């Protein structure tokens, strides 16, 4: 029996026009690089953002210092704050409805994200969502020791919602690292979704339970 669904945010439940990875690319390339958007999303999707920057930089095959990563990350955070201040954020189609549908089934809903807490909270405020209403908890990369693909955020979500068995948890996200996170946590099911950073073929490389096109398709699995 499924007790908890853990949803990724950007690209999965939140439509923010891919501004995070566009901003990651802008900050990296402002430091003298020429990475494409496709390279940034393939290497960085779903990760804590300083780790995403580190992994994108590693694509050039050279060593990059912690100081360089920290400098680019600081620039990224400033650029993102400006971008979010100007951005009209929307939920992905049907997200609120799916949250309600799961709650009616007695299933808890948690958002988790590679964002830091401040960024994540600004996002859900823009959407009019709040903990205790649309969602049962929010877990961010800055709340745990290890980001994705480690299981820390899912374990934290279970702790916050009182769910004891990982087999009763579903994880859904728009990147391979979301699927890897769910598998590392021992989730009963893991799903990719094609509304965000990666394609169906990319998502299937992580061997999820299934790849979805719409959030509402989750009902067929939690009701089974």
TrEMBL record:
Q: Which SUPFAM superfamilies match?
A: HAD-like
Give the signal peptide, or none. Answer: none
Cross-referenced InterPro entries: HAD-like_hydrolase_sf, HAD-like_sf, HAD_sf, PGP-like_dom2, PhnX-like
Tell me yes or no: is Hydrolase among this UniProt entry's keywords: yes
The alphabetized list of GO BP terms reads:
DNA repair
Q: Name one Pfam family in it.
A: Hydrolase
Listed GO CC annotations: cytosol
Q: A single GO molecular function, which one? A: phosphoglycolate phosphatase activity
The alphabetical list of record keywords is: Hydrolase
What PANTHER family has UniProt attached to this entry? PHOSPHOGLYCOLATE PHOSPHATASE, PHOSPHONOACETALDEHYDE HYDROLASE
Instruction: Quote the protein name from its UniProt record.
Output: Phosphonatase-like hydrolase
Originating organism: Roseiconus nitratireducens
